[in-house]
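Quick sanity check, DNA-(apurinic or apyrimidinic site) lyase:
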Amino acid sequence: KSTTGNIAKGSPAHVVLEYEKPVENWNAVYGIIQKQRAAITAPLDLLGHSIEKEEQDEKDEKLQRYDILVSHMLSSQTKDEMTAKAMENLREYGLTPAKMEEITLEDLVSLIKPVRFYSRKAQYIKDTTKVLLEQYNGDLPRTIPELLKLKGVGSKMVYGIANMAWRNTFGIGVDVHLHRVANRLGWVNTKNPDDTRKALESFLPKDKWQEVNVMIGGFGQVICKSSPNCVDCSVSHLCPSSLIKPKTELAIK
């Protein structure tokens, strides 16, 4: 079954999958991971989008939204450490739509070269910036369909961009780390991030939709990596994919 609800005016129906039986222990596992994550500095924390709303004026917020957009565009298939370095270069140069419109493609490539596919991404930044200046007064569009029309913005990153840029809950942003961890924990049984998003949205309370990517994603970067560090994992005793066998099971063998 599915339910629909408009995420923003002018947006198509937002589909959320419904499951007959929600994951029973997700809340306990979530809380334990949250405590461990608070003591971890993950690579994605280096991207730096923590400016509080009350500390910014309207102009600053507009530039922050552009910063969020560009960082997500650069992050595709790139380690967060490399994205952070490229963003540092851009911020030192002056990361504004006006400056990105004026900069030559060659110079832009040299600034973002730590990331993968830098030539293609540089062109995406130029093309998208042109659209923003011509159609949105240099700001970001407010709906998911409009954001998806921008070159370099894909379905995996769009919810993260919208949530952070507009400080509203559009949906759960799912990257490879959240996708991997959610499947290992048995929260979902999915083949791709978009299905993971729909499955997570079926049982996670909406007030967790914005935080879950950074919280679980960072946990996946440091603890539950491709080769998991189950020894240091705080929920290995509750994880169906844990490589650490319970003592009772070892005793039986």
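Posting the structure with no commentary besides this: The first helix runs from residue 26 to 38.
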